[in-house]
Amino acid sequence: MDPAPLRLALEAAFAADDPAPPSRAREAQRLAAVERLIAALAGQDFAAVKAELDPGVSIEIHAPPEFPFERRISGSERLVETLTANFAAVEQQGVEILGLVAQGDAVVLTFREQGRLRETGAPYDVHTVMEFRFAGDRVRHIREMIAPSTGMA
Questions:
Q1: For every residue of the chain, which 3-state class applies, written as one string?
Q2: Of the four, 6, 131, 138, 153, which is 20 to 30 A from 96 by CA?
Q3: Average pLDDT of each block of 10 consecutive residues along the chain (153 residues)?
């Protein structure tokens, strides 16, 4: 997945409906870290992924059972391994940014993703909310909630 269009969409979502986004330096720094993390994941640059993570990072993933993801992980080393496996479980990903909120030490990203489950070849169409929490300049916690887009246009 080419991260450039996603990065542009994130920056546009950050500035949308905000009369003074340049004055929100802290939130802009957090968003830049999320952008770097996503770009590193898309490029499979796992050293760069780890650089964005607090050593004690944790993630919780709430997803339909057809997604063969590990659901709870702690520690940057383990998280990088798990994200690698999770990303390998899907293919032909297309992402549409639906919304973004950045406030203080939190960035919340809402998007629609379509693709295929690699193991079965089955198509998927989901809406996802990802919450990134920071400790200092690094991601400390990620909460991801994935739901089928059935009935959504």
A1: CCHHHHHHHHHHHHHCCCCCHHHCHHHHHHHHHHHHHHHHHHCCCHHHHHHCEEEEEEEEEECCCCCCCCCEEECHHHHHHHHHHHHHCEEEEEEEEEEEEEECCEEEEEEEEEEEECCCCCEEEEEEEEEEEEECCEEEEEEEEEEECCCCC
A2: 138
A3: 60 61 78 91 87 95 91 92 85 90 92 93 95 95 94 53
